[in-house]
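TL;DR need structure tokens for one chain.
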Amino acid sequence: MFIQTETTPNPATLKFLPGDTVLATGTADFPQAEAAADSPLARRVFAVPGVTGVFLGSDFVTVTKADAAHWDQIKPSILGAIMDHYQSGEPALAQGQAAAAGGHAVTGDGPDAEIVGQIKELLDTRVRPAVAQDGGDITFHGFDRGVVYLHMQGACAGCPSSTLTLKMGIENLLRHYIPEVVEVRPVA
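>> reply
TL;DR here they are.
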């Protein structure tokens, strides 16, 4: 197995491409080791000293390191952990654990239902594919009085350019297509 790596806009995060499916549907975000109980893959990666976050996408694993850790020191161990996982035959997520399908658990009923539907469609077709290229994901959390609430995950969480991405990229896109949108705000 040959695992490729790609840098991301976040210098604390690297994208690992195992050349195989990681998750068949959705994504899974593990911002700390305790959250990885249901993911054999994330547990293996968290076992590497210096790893502070793991994000699983369709065909990639994004790993965030501690500030004091250096990629040239921990990258070989992460590659080994990912390879060990694929050789084990275990799933990335334990049976019965569903990956978050883009954070679309928020439903849009009421007077803003049509606007929420348009926002979700634009996020799915225009924003999420671009964000996934950088090793992350974005989830919709709500729409209230012209404000769209979004959550950045994976490489995008804590990225120095995430605020610029939200304000200049996503906010401008949504405002262009949906006049009711006046602002985009991040949620933790």
